[in-house]
Structure formats: C-alpha cells, structure tokens
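User: Can you help me understand a structure? I only have the sequence.
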Amino acid sequence: MVSVDIDHPDIEQFIAWKMLEEQKVAALVAGSRLANRHLNAVMQACLDGDAEGDTAFDPRKNPQLRRAVIAARQAELPENYIQRVIQFARQGYRHIEFPAFDTDWQSKPTSPCLAETPTTRCGSPTPSCAR
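Assistant: Let's start by predicting it. Here is the structure, written out as tokens:
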C-alpha cells in the first residue's frame, strides 16, 4: 500500500493519482463482468438454441445466437472474442470464466465447465456454476 502524510507537499498529486488508479481497477472489473455476461450468453445461445449441428454455431442460421452476438457487439466486445467463444462452444465447453486480471484467456478457456448433466458440479471456482 502506498501512503503519504497529509502535510506532504505532493498530497494533492498523490490523491489524484490514487483516484485514477482506482478508476482503472473499477473499469477492469466492470469490463470483466461485461465479458462474462455477454460472451457466456453467446456460448449458451450456441448450445441451447433450436438449431442442430453446425447451424447452431452460425449466427446467420441460429436466431438466438444472432441476437446474442448483436448484443455482444453493442457492448463493444471485440469480434475475435466473440468468434473464440463460439469456437469453445463448438468444442463442447458449456461455461467459461473471464477473470479480470487474466490477460491470456484468448488462448485457452480459464475455467471450462464440461459436466454432462446440469446437476453435476463442475469444479469451477464460480459457485453458481451447476453445469
């Protein structure tokens, strides 16, 4: 922890710097939650939609996936993130976590849920995951 005495000549600069750093952390956490919500919705649309086979992973043929992709794009998530999640769904992943401080998630899923039945616990660090 960084601290400065209240009578230090640079206290105002320190407070401004500290506030900026806190805003960065808040933005990082908010972005992580946004990615979790929208990208998991894309994954679920691939798996839960009415489309069968390869059409389930094509937004042009799966209307539920198309809506999820549009929502993710409106949230300004990068297109390569959306495409990568569709690839993970095609590989059989059902859920994925996007931790705020993990920058390497694009290369591999960080916490996949691969359980076969909804009643099986998956071992994910996410307590709400029941897949």
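Now, to help you interpret it: Residues 10-131 form one domain. Residues 57 and 87 are 8 Å apart (CA to CA). Let me know which part you'd like to focus on.
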